[in-house]
Amino acid sequence: MGRARPATGPFTRRAIAGLAPVVAVQNQFHAAKRDDVELLAACQEADIAFVPFFPLGGGRELDDERLTKVAARHGAAVSQIGLAWLPASSPVTLAIPGTGSVWHLEDNMAVAGITLSEEDLADLS
User: Fold this and answer.
1) pLDDT at position 28, please?
2) Contact 54, 32 (CB under 8 A)
3) CA distance linking residue 123 with residue 118, whole number of Å
4) Which of 11, 12, 85, 89 is exposed most, by the fewest CB atoms within 10 A?
């Protein structure tokens, strides 16, 4: 079973506890909106995929000083650092960014070449 938002409350806690098999949880989550870190930790502990929707916050929410600093260090766009941060935050995170054009696709694919350092991750925490 996969579970999309709202992925909180007793249903999800029971499911993650093993009363129903869950293979993925989908919630809004990105570098500037980390409300579900406890849920992400529970997914990681149970080896359940965590699929954040709006991994770029719709674009507006990623206007963040921390992201800007790390982006400048890498010569990358803030959105690319936001995408690179997601799998770095947890090995069970699988981001699926929207792609409205070839340019967006190429920009998103370039994230594969970005490796965030310990310093980057500390700056983003």
Assistant:
1) 83
2) no
3) 9
4) 11
